[in-house]
Design brief:
The chain is of the alpha/beta class. It has one domain (about 1-240): Purple Acid Phosphatase, chain A, domain 2 (4-Layer Sandwich). It contains 8 helices and 11 strands. It has helices at about 15-25, 45-55, 60-70, 80-90, 95-100, 130-140, 220-230, 235-240; strands at about 1-5, 30-35, 105, 110-115, 145-150, 155-160, 165-170, 175, 180-185, 200-205, 210-215. Strands 3-4-5-9-6-7 form a 6-stranded mixed sheet, covered by helices on one side. The chain has a 5-stranded mixed sheet with strand order 2-1-10-11-8. β3 and β4 (about 110-115) form a beta hairpin. α7 (about 220-230) runs antiparallel to α8 (about 235-240). The longest helix has 13 residues, at about 80-90.
């Protein structure tokens, strides 16, 4: 079974459509989305509608729950707050209900997925430090692979049989050994932050036990134009062009 696993669309319809087009050119059986459909970008409703057409395998992100009123938006920085408030004004009650009902974590046969962390996903913590990585990897028991988003930075953390923490950002093909535990961040569709402005998503092959990161070009200038036309903070247009 081959899964396309993606995260953090953030209302960027151009990036999302490009990723979906790329997925159609590959042999993929299932699509999994790791949260943050909305926030930052100028097409939140269109992204919600398109995602709902493509897959039911969706978890909540912090921006999704912020828009739905389930996470206090004072938690966000000032630019994100402006974007959330604007997004709220663009969505109808059905859209907000859909976002509010998204779960924090889901399980498939071979893996689990969540937006932020497998431990206390409602706290929206980030995994940057060795301590946070090891703590969350040790929490993986019956499922040894967890897919996440949230930081927008693609990386794979590994806890090997000796209890040693390893990581890699070279994700052209990562072999997932059965006795290790893995936290796999698939990056962001709509707002990458690893210095590469192209949209990112991952392919997980359960038979070969491999993960590979995919990068996709999209019409960044049009996405930027729409952000500016919506009177959203200009920094949101600038950063998608730079990948940070």
């Amino acid at each position: 079974m081959r899964y396309a696993i993606f995260s953090d669309i953030h209302g960027n319809l151009e990036a999302f459509q490009a990723v979906l087009n790329d997925i159609t050119m590959k042999t993929i059986q299932n699509l999994v989305f790791l949260g943050d459909i909305v926030g930052y970008g100028a097409n939140p409703k269109e992204c919600i509608d398109l995602l709902r057409e493509k897959t039911p395998a969706i978890v909540a992100g912090n921006h999704d729950w912020g828009v739905a009123g389930k996470t206090n938006i004072s938690y966000f920085n000032s630019v994100a707050q402006v974007a959330i408030e604007w997004t709220i004004s663009q969505l109808n009650p059905e859209d907000k209900k859909f976002l509010a009902q998204l779960p924090l974590k889901r399980e498939e046969k071979d893996f689990i997925y969540t937006h932020s962390t497998p431990i206390n996903p409602h706290q929206w913590n980030y995994i940057f430090s060795e301590y946070e990585a090891i703590k969350n990897l040790r929490a993986l028991t019956t499922k040894r692979i967890c897919f996440i988003g949230h930081s927008h930075i693609p990386i794979v953390f590994v806890l090997n049989q000796s209890g040693e923490l390893l990581f890699t950002t070279k994700l052209s093909e990562v072999i997932l050994e059965e006795k290790n535990r893995y936290l796999i961040n698939v990056g962001s569709v709509g707002q990458p932050r690893d210095g590469d402005p192209r949209a990112a998503y991952g392919i997980f092959d359960t038979e070969k036990r491999t993960f590979s990161l995919q990068r996709v070009d999209y019409d960044i200038s049009n996405a930027q134009r729409k952000i500016l036309s919506a009177n959203l903070p200009p920094i949101l247009a600038k950063r998608i062009g730079m990948g940070w």
